[in-house]
Structure formats: structure tokens, C-alpha cells
Amino acid sequence: MEVDQERSSLFRHQRSLDQPLGSIITFLLPAVTVYLAFTAFPVIRTLFNSFHRVLPGKAALFIGWDNYISVFVKDDIFLRAVKNTITWACLSPVLEVSLALLLALALYAKIPGARFFRIAWFTPVLMSYVVVGIIWIWIYNYDWGAVNVLLRGLGLAEWVKAWLGNPKTALWSLIFVTTWMWTGFNMVVLLAALHSLPSEVLEAGELDNCGWFKKLWFIVIPMVRPTILNLLVLSFVGKMKVFDLVWITTKGGPLWATETVATYVYKRAFEWSTFDLGYASTVASIWFVIILSGVLLLTWLFRQREKLEY
Amino acid sequence: MSVAQRLKQVAFLILLSFYTAFVAGPLFWVTTMSLRTTTEIAHNPYALPETFHFEKFYKAWVNSNYNVYFTNSVIIVLSAVAILTLIGGMAGHCFARYRFRFRRFLYFMIFSTIIFPPQITIIALFQILVEYGLYNSRIGLILVYVAFQLPVTVYILESFFARIPSDLYDAARMDGYSEWSIFFKVSLPVALPALSTTVILNTILLWNEFLYAVVLIVDEAKRTLPLGIQQFMGDHLEDVGMIASGLMIAIVPVVIIYVFFSEKLIQGMTAGAVK
């Protein structure tokens, strides 16, 4: 009995050494406080807002599913924004990753100056979207932008247009910009994945005299598959949130051709003088649920148990 | 190396050089424009600078308020990064070192916010900051930035701390170190490479941040660089030369960091994407 007690107190002492609850709490407290105050609470409050009319200086008025019904039934601009964003989020990952894979393979073939190339390609993602946006406004400029200057120089003057001012080309022009920006990033990641592959496998493919495409399709892609899937999801999520670039270049125009859900939420909340934060919160909440389900669906499709980043 | 291989290599080299020119061209172009006057640019946008107009930077800095924007950006980014490193390090250390109830749950909750769109928090953050008098203040923006970058920071640091052999901690404990001195004298020094990765990564990402700043800051005197540039662009749409100089003021610090820490930065940006 006595021994038992002694042992249990000893054991308790041991436990408190392994799990010093006081220290654990103090270590976590600042991070958890910031998380609760500036992430968790705002998310909950936005969800709460979405069922209310929220006017400045007044208590939130409960209106049930009214906002949700208006968003889905009456709001054509929202549907347009969804269409644009989904187009962007589905096209970009494929463009970026496939282009990146081809270029990474070219670089993998022991090209001199590999280090320089890697560093150069990575630069665009380090720039602010504000910087990138302004540069590309100029590149797409009708009179003196590089694109039109090039087209005139090549004698293709009939193709010249105001790329961002034309509703038919604006969205594609912006998708082109994000591809310019992010392909290098994807390539650097893929290159790292390729370098971590055992070189014997690729050499074996060489010996078996596999064709170039066969080697790519049957050996390289399956082996870097996890990386490819991660990059696709990463790019998808990034484009579902895209705001800065659109805001700097077109503000969603012309005629809602480049409106994304993110810019629409911003407009409804802070630009249009409707003063009702509830409606914008509803749009944000719907989009939040769609992004989460999109990511879950993609991970489920890829049967990818690993954690997702960004 | 056979002739065929050599040829293939040259072909690849040409392809890659084209791509590099395509990537670097716009950045090079904006650099040349930042050193030329708007009149020169209007005459020929694609010429190289004949005389380097460095005085344009002085003009932007003093007459167009870029000194204010730059200082604000530096203050806000450095404070946020300092807080992030400390509290992110503490949390990462705690998640990696101790086994306690709700550990996985808490970690998952913080980590999962990595994929949240900022729109889900921004409207309520605006309300909350207004209610607590933190709207349109640097402190408010700093706190929001800390929350915004916390998941990535905790993720990178936790995975590094978890790889530190526990023998090291046991030895420190034998020597009578308290939990806090273990954190400061063992964990942090050993994790210096991971800490520097998060510091550099957070600095760059927050330096470039636009959405939270545009919603939460209104005063001219509190604007960060991206906001200041956007404002300047709106007011002086035609003054391409001066806008380009302003862009360079935002780009140069990033380029300097990148020159010295390129590998670190690539590591940080791609953390987790390679699996």
C-alpha cells in the first residue's frame, strides 16, 4: 500500500516532468490567443453575419436565409464572378504545372548554369501583385505596350487590341500573368523532386531505349506524382482567392469580365455604398465552403493523405 | 558526350534562355524605366537609359511620400515578423516537444487556416478592429499579419523542432534546465536554420501584402508601400517614369534579400510543396 502510494507519487512526478502543464499553456497561450482573436472569431463572426443585415451603428438584424437566397437566385454578378474564378482556378494549375514540368525536365538534363536559371525563374513570385499588376498594365497597353509593339512589328496589326480593356481578352490576359508569375515556382519545386529521384530509374529507361514521351509518361510523372498533385492543389487554392492582381489591373472590369469572388466580396463590403456587411459575408461564407469542399474533393480524388499547404 | 547529346543540350539551353528572357524581361524593363524620365519613356519606351536619373528616386522618396510608406512598411513588417518568430517558435516547440490532450486538434485547427481565403476573415476583422479602436492603426495591421502568417510559421518550425533528437532535451533536463531555458538555450539555437527561413519568408510575404492593408488602413500617413504605390498610380496615371521609380523602391529590398538568401527563400516558399 505504502509502496503503491510512493510509486504513484513518483509516477505523478515523472508525468509532470514529461507534461509540465503550466509550461505547455504558457508556450501556447500567445499563439492560441492570436489565433482565436484574429482567425477563429472572425470566421465565426462572418458566418454569423451571413444570416443578418449588418448596418453600421445598428445591432445586427436576423434575416435567416434571405441573403443566401438572394445570392443564388438574384445575383447575376456573383454567378459571373464564380464562373470567372472557377475558370481561372481550373485552368491555371494545369497550365502552370505542365509547362513547369517540361521546363524542369529540360533543366534536369545537366544544363550548364542550372543554378542561375533556378534563381532567375523564381523571381516573379517574390514580387508584390501590386508591382506585377502595374508592370503588366503597361505590357498590355494599347499604344506602347510590349505585346502590341511586338504584334505590329510582326505585321499582325489586326491582332492589336487593348488586352485588359476588351471583355473578350481581359480574363485570359490575367490568367497569362499568373502563369508567367507562378510557372517558375512550380518548376523549382518539380526540379527538387526530380533531383531526389534515384537516377538509376531514369538511366534504366534510357537503356531500354524508351521514347522521350514514354519515359515522361510512364517513369517520370508517376514518380513525382505526389509533388505534382500538391502543386495542383496549391495553385487551385491560390487562384480561388485571387484578389490583388485583379484589383490593381482591372478592378473586375470591363463589364465584369474579370470579376472574381474575392473582388466582388470586397466591392460589396467596402466599395458599393450599401453599408450592409451581411450580404458580403454571405458571399464570403459560400465561397469559403466551396474552397474547403474543393480542396477536400481534390485530395479525395488524388487519394492523397498528406497535409496540404497554403 | 556524344554529338547528339551535345546538340540536345544546346537546344535545351536555347529554350531555357528564351524562357528566362520572358520571365526576366518585364523586370529588366521596369528597371530601365525607373532610371529614365517620363518624357524619355514617351519618346521610346524600350530604350536603355542614356543618363541614369537617380534623382528620380530622391524625388519619389521626398516629394511623393515614399519615405513615409517605406518606413511604415519596415515598422509593420519587422514588428510582425519579430512577434511571429517568438510566438510561432514557442507554439512550434510546444507542439513538437510535449504530448498533451488536444495537441493534434489544436495543431490541426491552426494549420488548416492555411487554405482559408482571406475574405472569410476580412469583413469581421474590419468590424472587430473598428470596435476595439485598432482600425486604421499600425498595431491592428501588425496583429492581423501575425495571425495571417502564424499557420505557415508554426508548420515550418514544428516540423523542424520535431527532428531535434530528444536526447538533447533529456541531457538539458538532467542538467537542471527549466522548460523555458530549454526553449531558449536548446531549441532556438539548434533551430536557427528553420527560424531564419521563416523570418525571410514572412518578411517577403508581408512586405508584398495588399488586401489586409487596403481594407484596414486609410490614412495616408499609415500606408504601407503596396498601398502607397497603388495610390500614386491612381493619382498620376500618366507619369510612367515616376511610377516605375516607386516600383523599384518596393522591389529593391526584396532583391537584396534574395541575393543574399536565395536558397533559404526558395526553401521557405516551397516548404511542404515537395513531398
Architecture overview:
The termini of chain A are far apart. Chain A is built from 14 helices and two strands; from the N terminus they run H-H-E-E-H-H-H-H-H-H-H-H-H-H-H-H. Chain A has helices at residues 2-18, 21-49, 66-73, 76-108, 114-122, 129-139, 146-153, 170-195, 199-207, 212-223, 225-240, 244-249, 261-271, 277-302; strands spanning 52-53, 61-62. Chain A has a two-stranded antiparallel sheet with strand order 1-2. In chain A, helix 5 packs antiparallel against helix 8 (170-195) and helix 13 (261-271) packs antiparallel against helix 14 (277-302). Chain A folds into two domains: 2-49, no CATH class; 68-302, Orthogonal Bundle (MetI-like fold). Chain B has two domains: 3-43; 65-235, MetI-like fold (Orthogonal Bundle). Chain B is 77% helix and 0% strand. Chain B contains 13 helices and no strands. In chain B, helix 4 (66-97) packs antiparallel against helix 10 and helix 12 packs antiparallel against helix 13. The longest helix of chain B is centred in the N-terminal third of the chain and has 32 residues, at 3-34. At the A-B interface, helix 2, helix 4, helix 5, helix 6 and helix 8 of A face helix 1, helix 4, helix 5, helix 6 and helix 7 of B.
